[in-house]
Amino acid sequence: MDGMVGSAAAPDTPVHVALHTSDVDEARAFCRKLFYGPLEVTPVGDLSGFAFDGDVVMLGSVTVGKISYGSDIHVNIADLETAYHVLAPLTGTLRSRHRGTTVLADATRAAVYRPVGAIDLDWPGDCRLMSVKVDRAALERELDATLDQRIVSPLLLGESFDMVDGPGRTWAALVRLLHSELCADDGLIRQPRMAARWRDMVVSGLALTVEHPYGVDEPAGLQGPRRPRTVKRALDAIHAEPWRQFTAGDLASSAGVGVRVLQEAFRQHVGMSPLAYLRRVRLDGVHAELSRSDAWQVNVSEVAYRWGFTHLGRFAGAYRDRYGVSPSQTLRERR
């Protein structure tokens, strides 16, 4: 492998990992480690041509890989849970089944996957593709901010989009450029501030490219109330520094209102108190970090402290309430 996923890497520090192998088990372990734990890769037919080629870059909430197997395979993935995903073939045609819909993805059309629902892929040997993983919280937060209203989670996204014309063409080109630049050692994107901006462009570009029902004409029952500026200011403060030890008074000051006014506005427009929302953002951050790490790379306590949790007992209880498992289980199961 080229490169290593390190726990000390800053969120905007690019990580590049590559693997070229004819060993099926090694290829399967590589994909599980960098994308999803519950992933099964099963060769179909003759294995003589099996030649896995994976070139993956990670940048905070975005993981982009150029992947091919060299021979026909079948891939099955359980619920993604913590991410949205796009498969954009460069060559060949991928047959994808997700949530009762079959998509034939090729160089003209990408397949899109929501966090809920198993994924079933028939992946021919001549198919080489860009595999793009976007953390669930990052995409939902981006669409929420773009629309300035509450959204349904997980997002009700379309199952595919066009990569020949319109926004899809631009987004696919951006992803390819991001990948090639992060694979190099001397590009401008290696500067942390530039890397963060490119990462944000990939997330915001996807939010604007993929089909969703959250526009002006969305169906009754999906539309959320528009959020007042005071709530948006507090939300922006939380997402800018989720690890900061905010009090209700701190958030109210950032919003320019009193504590009671902000709490009532949050209950009405967010569905929970400001501090409850802050805790959810922190928990999602810890969960995302543990989900993409190996047990030997990170320490649960260190990750929790980094995200602003100072009482580990309360953190562990809140984590189990939200995800149904302990933090250490998440770390073990995503190896």
Automatic annotation (TrEMBL):
Keyword set includes Chaperone: no
Pfam families with a match to the protein in the record: AraC_binding_2, HTH_18
GO MF term (any one): sequence-specific DNA binding
Domain HTH araC/xylS-type: 232-333
Annotated keywords: DNA-binding, Transcription, Transcription regulation
Classification via SMART domains: HTH_ARAC
Protein name (Swiss-Prot/TrEMBL): AraC family transcriptional regulator
Organism: Paractinoplanes tereljensis
Phylogenetic lineage: Bacteria, Bacillati, Actinomycetota, Actinomycetes, Micromonosporales
